[in-house]
Please model this.
Amino acid sequence: MTIFLDSAGSSLPPEEVTDEVVGHLRREAEIGGYVAARERQDDLEAGYGVFAELLGAEPDEVAFTDSATRAWLTAFDAVPLAAGDRVLYSEAEYAGTAIPILRRTREVGAVAEAVPSDSSGQIDVGALKEMLDERVKLVSLVHVPTNSGLVNPAREVADAAHDVGALVLLDACQSIGQMPVRADELGVDLISCTGRKWLRGPRGTGALVVRREAARRMRPRLVDLHSAEWVGPHDIRLREDARVYEIWETDVAARLGLIAAGRYALAKGLDVIEREVADRAGRLRAGLGALPGVTVRDVGERMSGIVTFTVDGLGATEVRDRLAADGVTVTVSVASSTLLDMTRRGLDEVVRASPHYFVQPEQVDQAVEAVSRCAR
Model:
């Protein structure tokens, strides 16, 4: 039996999720996609309430997308930027968000600046406060980076950014589903997230939270007949809720699966999930840290379910492949995905393990033993 330690990549959906997706696809094959979608309209509509509860927002502040990337890009594109404006981001920024930041700021004549990390490895809130001024229009924050156990202090960042009127866009791709992520508690303006990772939903699903206060300042541009209405020969009317960030065509089966995954997480309890994930990750981190020739590479004051490490004399890809042959699934995080952080720490690549609550403690111990065989 495989020991699955890659929920930070694409996790294992529970039966409730796969049954929902496959069942709807079968229904589409029987009666057609439009009719099948109309049958589930009430369930699709209820999904906004599910994710509002999950993400600490109101249903009209929730939009569904086909990925966290789409959610993030759509929100970022709607933040007004002009020459002389500034966008701040942490050194742990993911390439998928850093690239559009660098590209768009260059195009409009704005400035993109990285906030340094503190001695623990998390974003330096003191340095952030020194960098903030009225020209900062957006602070982009990765809640849980892809390449370490770090959890960034979102509330402190949001409070500081709001002092100068900046919006905060939280990339919760790696945090939703493994810990509580609530807009009302974290104080952030925008949240982008995925279904496929810790939430245990289908691939090709995501969600976006746009708080009402932020929505009034944003200018959505990527609109179609779902997000706007053609009301006259030369006139359109945009939706007034977060669904203005959606488009008409969607994978209905996948969205129903995403909603099922949200319900599943809420039923289990995010506090319970966070405790169990922390237990598995802590057990794995301690076990790996005790192995000769193995170095745990996690940073931060608060740790997530992501555990990264290297093995002396072996590349991360070789470690991944050896573990796969031993029945343990992990992945590799390379420098180009988090360039600033990895460069700062002198790392080219790390092995990334991410045990979810369904991984049993004895399986964690077996995984540590498998790594010890690699290190011999």
